[in-house]
User: Fold this.
Amino acid sequence: MVNSINFLLLFSLLVFAPFCHCKKKVGGYLYPQFYDDSCPKVEEIVKSIVAKAVTKEPRMAASLLRLHFHDCFVKGCDASVLLDSSGTIISEKRSNPNRNSARGFEVIDEIKSALEKECPHTVSCADILTLAARDSTVLTGGPSWGVPLGRRDSLGASISGSNNNIPAPNNTFQTILTKFKLKGLNIVDLVALSGSHTIGDSRCTSFRQRLYNQTGNGKSDFTLDQNYAAQLRTQCPRSGGDQNLFVLDFVTPVKFDNYYFQNLLANKGLLSSDEILLTKNQVSAALVKKYAESNDLFFEQFAKSMVRLGNITPLTGSRGEIRKHCRKINT
Ligand code: HEM
Ligand SMILES: *[C@@H]1O[C@H](CO)[C@@H](O)[C@H](O)[C@H]1NC(C)=O
Ligand SMILES: *[C@@H]1O[C@H](CO)[C@@H](O)[C@H](O)[C@H]1NC(C)=O
Assistant:
């Protein structure tokens, strides 16, 4: 009797499980309608504040897009990047990739405070970051996509995770690919998401090595166009000027398009991590060429890969919390 009940249970699981869509939506437990009842205006509010900030300063779109990436690669997309230091929390804002570099926190604060007025204690900071990344892409001319929602916010930060998981601009191709794979992303995601460098800026310190001493032999990176390198050296000296800013895509610096990939083909990628997508691996090189040829194919894959980025180990259900202020955990 017990056996036959067990058998029936097992049988129905095997037969019906493949048809159960309960939890297998795009984004696992996350879904775009998450706030439809609890905060129907969430998307409108996020978009209006991002739009205002980007109008005021076009670079803000890039900064917000990058913030989502730096959030998701550390403990998952849980807004850990937004926490300030306090008590036992050491802020990720102090890590190598973020120090003097990550920005946009005031815009996230403004969105959070508007949402706390509209629907108190409902929308997570992690979801705000994800929506702001999508809106930043659209506002600069990139593709749009439905954003799976329902993330919750972390109760802590990880400065070691921020230092170790986020790729550095002088990492080898293999190291960067490994860091993506550790987050469940593949080589297609790596190339498509690197296309984010079609907007935004980099500091001199992030690529200086390429201009003067790429491999330790006192020579510049031979995969960098020599005229472009000479031009960059005038504003990025051997020493000093660490914080001087350079556009990542010199053709259309504030427009989201596929010039990033076309630049790579012309040996005019700014970061070493950009150019090696073309020079160190045949699979990624083929993808660079494909996206350089077709803006549509780039946009289509970028949208898909952004959803995959946003799905990295979110906190859902009763895990984590909905922060009242994005910079600190609730007391
Ligand atoms: C593939 C490995 C990656 C590396 C090594 C890398 C590295 C960097 C570096 C060094 C900068 C300049 C930072 C500075 O000097 O202040 C930068 C900027 C930027 N990155 Fe990446 N990145 C990578 C992937 C990504 C991804 C996946 C995204 C988004 C999905 C992204 C979005 C951006 C944006 C938009 C900027 C400009 C930010 C601004 O102007 O404020 N990056 N990245
Ligand atoms: C990469 O850059 C960091 C920081 O500037 C430097 O300490 C390190 O030696 C560089 N690594 C390589 C392999 O060049
Ligand atoms: C280049 O880097 C190597 C190794 O870091 C160092 O020994 C050498 O002095 C540097 N050369 C120049 C010209 O800066």
